[in-house]
Structures are given as structure tokens and as C-alpha cells.
Design goal:
The complex is a heterodimer of chains A (294) and B (335).
Chain A: H1 11-14, E1 24-29, H2 38-47, E2 73-84, H3 95-99, E3 105-115, H4 123-127, E4 133-135, E5 141-143, H5 154-157, E6 164-165, E7 172-173, H6 179-182, H7 189-193, E8 199-203, H8 204-220, E9 227-229, E10 242-246, H9 266-293
Parallel strand pairs in A: 1-10
Antiparallel strand pairs in A: 1-8, 2-3, 4-5, 6-7, 9-10
Chain B: H1 30-36, H2 62-87, H3 91-115, H4 134-158, H5 162-188, H6 193-196, H7 202-221, H8 228-256, H9 258-261, H10 263-285, H11 291-321, H12 323-330
Helix pairs in contact in B: 2-3, 2-5, 2-7, 2-11, 3-4, 3-7, 4-5, 5-7, 7-8, 7-10, 7-11, 8-10, 10-11
The chains are: A alpha+beta (294), B mainly alpha (335).
């Protein structure tokens, strides 16, 4: 085992892979997501994920609700009341949308396709007691379904609330970044299906460069709220293998604002547990030593 | 294309402006501005995705896992008290501790296997020894402890192999405290704010609670002439448990500690405080004089310890279910 927190350049190498391919990832640019849910459908189809309820939630167009054992891509829909000012330069802008009353509307729609983050320091993988969760040669995190015994430890360990237990099956399931496809040189089903290239798949280093350029472009175009989420190798999970461009605070999309891999504090936890055990031994010993004198 | 009548309230004939490149209003970042100025309690101001939880609550069943937290604490501490009683010539108290240890750890094992999504695969726990996984470490701790507790109890009851019995009693007493305190690491090593944020104090809460429970068992099961040290342990355990619990709540701060004070977790923690304090007082003042009083104090200590574990468990579930706790733990209010 390698490092438990902090920046890590060679994730697969740290996990024991030699001569491995570059770390692969997703860059989900939510500024061009149109909420078509093709990613959700393609993911379900390719991975043969069971149906998990056809409910009406009243949460805008989101009847999926969130990532789960049976939902590995989830498109969030956020309706916001706020001034949207028409740009100076109309080139490439959907004019019909603005033209109805020729001026500002006071509504915007945020859409974002969420997915497993494939963390540099993945808490689910760290806490898995059977070794069912493992780091692939692509630096992604995958559950081996023939090993998982359904202990459920990964579920509350994930700082993003991604992995979950399938009720009738008992085991834990989540996005594999289409391990079967990428091993064959294909891109994951969601990225393949995305019609606007909101979901981009590729070597993580390239994606980070592309994402930084995209944010710069958006800032220059007057979208100061555009920001990357999960792209920083210095963050609490050592950076995500699947990161995002967001147009509002993370919590608006249901994402944790500053996630931390829980195992970062594991040495401190064991130290305190050791001290508590010694306190227990000390207290009981003292009680019996005092008792002996009587 | 017709006028957009069927939009959300208030939009009337306007078409919702589509978010397009460059179309977002620059300087007006209302939400953020407001949040930046928030005061001590972010409740009213925090934003979330339709109030849905950010993290997933544990899939563990309370009866299984909170039950295990209680029984594991009882088992490990009982073995420690058994050794103390044996070395100081209190054979019936020692036997109570040994049988209690074996019974509690046996039931724990059943609960743990029952809680697995695939119980038939429980042996996969021993496929690897993984230092980053407290559950893996715990499995090996239980492997080190369980058989020794079994041998200690069996040799005591049958009177066979006394030397092996003494060695097993000693070994179980050494491994016992690890069983007691590792369960705090087990639940702290999660993303749940009420557990992770409490990782420094929880082991002491569990150690105190385990000691109180084991002393309660000895008070219930052994004659008065042999329970004097156990009564001291009751006071020690209760004091450690209650003091560490107060520190834990202070460390977490008013928002993140809320699940320990309100709702199901709060009710259980209040009951735990009352029962543990009453049990310790009863043990200190009355249990030396009357057997029924000793039994009552012992029962209160056991019940108090169970309430502590179920309370901590319920607080964790509550803490995972409301996104405000996750956000409060990650975005502390500015000073």
C-alpha cells in the first residue's frame, strides 16, 4: 500500500502496477450539459444495471434523484431564479431563447451529470476489508463482484455518497469507468453517448489542461462563476479521476464542498484508540490493585 | 414556436433564458454573497440539492451493528475484569467475566455475519490483512480474541487444563481492550460528520462505556463479597464515558453535534447519561450493602452502555441523512 493522503502522481504505480497505461479520467463540463440523460441510459444499457424504480419526484426533470448501486450516472437539474443578461456578442448564442422579450430573463437552468469520482485516495477502497475494491492499471477504482461480501463499509466511507449496496443482491456497486470497454481501447458508454461532449474521457493530465483552458475561456466570456471541482491534486482526496466544471457552489449540485478521504486521519484514530485501550487497562488495574489491599 | 406559457410560476410569457456561453450575469452572485456572511448557525442559509443527503447513510442495521458495538465493548472489558478478579482471588467474579466475554463475543459474531449482504462470504474478511481498513484489522483482532475468550470460559467451567486456562485468560484480557476501542475507529473511519469529527473522543467514550457495562455484568452475576473492585470500575467507566461524551460534543460544535442532542440519537444519549450516572452512583453507594441494589445498579450500567452505543449509531445515521451536517463540517462558519 502506498500513501494515504496528499498529492500522488502515479496512482496505479503506487497501487503496484508496473508498465501501466496513463491514468484515465472523466472531465464533465456542466456548462454544455443539455440534460438529455443519454449518459444515464447508455450506462444502464452497457452495464446491464437493473431498473431501480420509476418515480416522480417533482425535482425539476430529475426523477433519478442521485447516484446509487443501480445508478452510476445521474443528471442533476437545478432551476435558479437569477438575472441572465444577454451577452454583447450574439455569435454562437441561442437567440430564440433570448428573443421572446428581447431582454433579460430571470431564470437559469443548471444541469450536471454526476458520476463516481475515482479519487486519488479512495476511501471506499481503503476501508474495504476483503480487497474486493481495487485500483486498476488505469488508476480507476472498481469493485470485484465475486469477492465483495456486502459488509457495507464502503457506503458511509465515500465522501461523495456514490457507492451503495444493492438491496436484493447484498453487494456494493458503482461506476467502473467501463473497465471492460477502456481495456479494449473504447471510451466509456456515457462519454460515447454524450451528444455535446459535456462528458469527456481521456488521459487525466490532458483533461486537466483542457479543463483549465475551458475555465479561462468562460471567465473571459463573462462567466466568472465557472470553476473546476475535483481537479486539484492538493485537495482532501488528492484530486479526482472524474472532475467537473461547475457554474455554482458544489453543494447546489449535491456535491460536498470540501471532501476529505476519511483514512487521512486513520493514524490519529489508531493512536487515540490505543490511548483509550491503555486508559481502560490502567483504570481496571488500579481498581483491582486497590481492591487487593483490603 | 409559441410563447412559453407553461413555465414555472412568475415567468408568464417569458421564455426561460437558456444558459449559454457568456450569458450568465457577471457581478450578481447572490447565493454566494449571502453564504459568505453567515453567522454561527448556517441552518437557514445553506444550499443543497433538493435537501437530499450528500453522503450515504450506513446500510448497517442498528440491531446488528449498534448491538455489536455494545456487545464487543462488554466482551473485551469483561475479559479484562475476569483477569483482575482471577489474580486477586475472586473466582466467581472471574467466571462471570469469562462467561460474559464468551457469550458477548459469540453473539457479536452472529450479528456481524448476519449484517453482511452476502453472509456466506464472511470468510472473505480473512482473505487479506489490510491496515487501511479498520474492519479488516478488527476481523483479525476478533480472531485473536474470540478463541482465547472461548478457551478461558471453557477451562473455567470444566476445571480442565488450568494452566492453559490461565494463559487464555491473560491473552483475552490483553486482546480485550483492543476489541473495545477499535470499534470507535471502525465507525470514525467514515465520511459521517458526527463520527469522523469525533474520532479523538469516541475511543474513550467506548472504553468508558465498555468498562461500565462489564462492571455491571459482574455486579449482576457475582456475590457482593467479590464485587468491590468492579464497583470502582463502574465509577471509573461511567466517569470516562460521560466526560469523553461531553468533550466530543464540544469538539463537534453546535451544528455537527446536533444529532447527539436531538431526535432518536439525542433521546438515546440522554437515556444513556441518566442510566450510566444512576448505575455508577448505585454501584458506589448501595451495591456493597445489598444484593438487589447491586443487581439494579448492574442492570442500569448495562442498559446505559447499550443506550450509548445505539445513541452514537443513531446520531451517525441522522448526521448522514441531512446535508447540512456535511456542509457545516466542511465549511466552518467564518470567525
Amino acid at each position: 500500500m502506498g500513501r494515504i493522503s496528499g498529492p500522488l502522481h502515479d496512482v496505479a504505480g503506487d497501487a503496484g502496477h508496473h508498465d501501466h497505461p496513463p491514468r484515465m479520467g472523466f472531465f464533465t463540463d456542466t456548462s454544455v450539459c443539455i440534460g438529455c440523460k443519454a449518459c444515464e441510459v447508455a450506462c444502464k444499457e452497457w452495464n446491464a444495471i437493473p431498473e431501480d424504480g420509476l418515480t416522480f419526484t417533482g425535482m425539476s426533470y430529475d426523477n433519478t434523484q442521485g447516484l446509487s448501486a443501480d445508478t452510476w450516472r445521474h443528471v442533476a437539474f437545478i432551476e435558479q431564479r437569477r438575472p441572465v443578461e444577454p451577452p454583447e456578442d450574439y455569435a454562437g448564442v441561442d437567440v430564440l431563447g433570448m428573443a421572446a422579450d428581447g431582454a433579460a430573463a430571470d431564470f437559469r437552468w443548471l444541469m450536471a451529470s454526476d458520476v463516481c469520482k475515482h479519487c486519488t485516495h479512495a476511501a471506499c477502497l481503503d476501508v474495504c476489508p476483503t480487497g474486493a475494491l481495487f485500483r486498476t492499471e488505469f488508476g480507476t477504482v472498481v469493485v470485484q463482484e465475486d469477492v465483495c461480501n456486502g459488509c457495507g463499509y464502503c457506503v458511509p466511507a465515500c465522501p461523495y455518497g456514490v457507492i451503495d449496496q444493492r438491496k436484493d443482491d447484498g453487494r456494493a456497486w458503482k461506476c467502473t469507468m467501463c473497465y471492460d470497454r477502456i481495456g479494449d481501447g473504447l471510451e466509456p458508454a456515457c462519454a460515447k453517448a454524450c451528444p455535446t461532449e459535456s462528458i469527456q474521457f481521456g488521459p487525466l493530465d490532458e483533461l486537466r489542461e483542457r479543463a483549465a483552458a475551458r475555465v479561462e475561456r468562460l471567465h473571459a466570456d463573462g462567466v466568472p462563476e465557472a470553476r473546476l471541482y475535483g481537479a486539484d491534486p492538493d485537495d482532501g482526496v488528492g484530486g479526482d479521476g472524474a472532475f467537473f466544471l461547475l457554474l455554482d457552489e458544489p453543494e447546489v449540485y449535491g456535491l460536498p464542498p470540501a471532501p476529505v478521504v476519511t483514512t487521512r486521519d486513520l493514524p490519529s484514530m489508531w493512536r487515540h484508540a490505543g490511548a483509550a485501550a491503555l486508559t481502560l487497562i490502567g483504570g481496571v488495574t488500579a481498581a483491582y490493585l486497590a481492591g487487593r489491599k483490603r | 414556436m409559441s410563447e412559453a406559457e407553461a413555465t414555472r410560476d412568475g415567468l408568464r410569457n417569458q421564455r426561460p433564458g437558456r444558459e449559454a456561453r457568456g450569458a450568465a450575469g457577471g457581478p450578481k452572485r447572490r447565493g454566494r454573497r449571502r453564504r459568505g456572511e453567515e453567522t454561527v448557525v448556517p441552518d437557514a442559509e445553506f444550499r443543497s440539492y433538493y435537501g437530499r443527503p450528500i453522503i450515504k447513510p450506513p446500510t448497517w442495521k442498528a440491531a446488528d451493528i449498534a448491538g455489536y458495538l455494545f456487545l464487543g465493548g462488554l466482551a473485551g472489558s469483561s475479559s479484562l475484569l475476569a483477569l483482575g478478579a482471577e489474580l486477586t482471588g475472586r473466582p466467581r467474579a472471574a467466571r462471570a467475566g469469562k462467561i460474559g466475554g464468551l457469550g458477548a463475543i459469540g453473539l457479536s459474531t452472529v450479528l456481524l455475519i448476519h449484517d453482511l449482504g452476502r453472509p456466506a462470504r464472511f470468510a472473505n474478511m480473512l482473505r487479506v490483512a489490510k491496515p487501511t481498513s479498520p474492519m479488516s484489522m478488527g476481523s483479525w483482532i476478533l480472531m485473536a480474541y474470540g478463541p482465547a475468550a472461548g478457551v478461558a470460559a471453557a477451562t473455567d467451567v470444566t476445571g480442565l487444563f488450568p494452566r492453559i486456562g490461565r494463559a487464555a485468560t491473560g491473552w483475552a484480557a490483553l486482546a480485550g481492550p483492543a476489541v473495545v476501542s477499535y470499534t470507535a475507529v471502525l465507525i470514525s473511519d467514515t465520511a459521517i460528520p458526527a463520527w469522523h469529527g469525533a474520532h479523538r473522543e469516541l475511543p474513550f467514550v467506548f472504553a468508558g462505556s465498555g468498562a461500565a457495562a462489564a462492571s455491571g455484568l459482574v455486579l449482576l452475576a457475582a456475590p457482593r463479597s467479590e464485587t468491590a473492585p468492579a464497583r470502582t470500575v463502574a465509577v471509573f467507566g461511567a466517569a470516562l464515558d460521560l466526560a469523553a461524551s461531553r468533550l466530543l460534543e464540544r469538539r463537534l460544535g453546535p451544528v455537527v453535534a446536533e444529532p447527539y442532542r436531538t431526535g432518536r440519537g439525542g433521546r438515546l444519549m440522554h437515556a444513556a447519561t441518566a442510566l450510566t450516572a444512576a448505575g455508577a452512583l448505585g454501584a458506589a453507594l448501595l451495591a456493597g450493602r445489598s444484593r438487589p441494589a447491586a443487581a439494579l445498579a448492574g442492570a442500569a450500567l448495562l442498559a446505559g452502555s447499550a443506550c450509548t452505543r445505539f445513541g452514537v449509531f443513531a446520531a451517525g445515521v441522522q448526521s448522514a441523512t441531512d446535508p447540512k451536517y456535511t456542509i457545516a463540517a466542511q465549511r466552518p462558519a467564518p470567525e
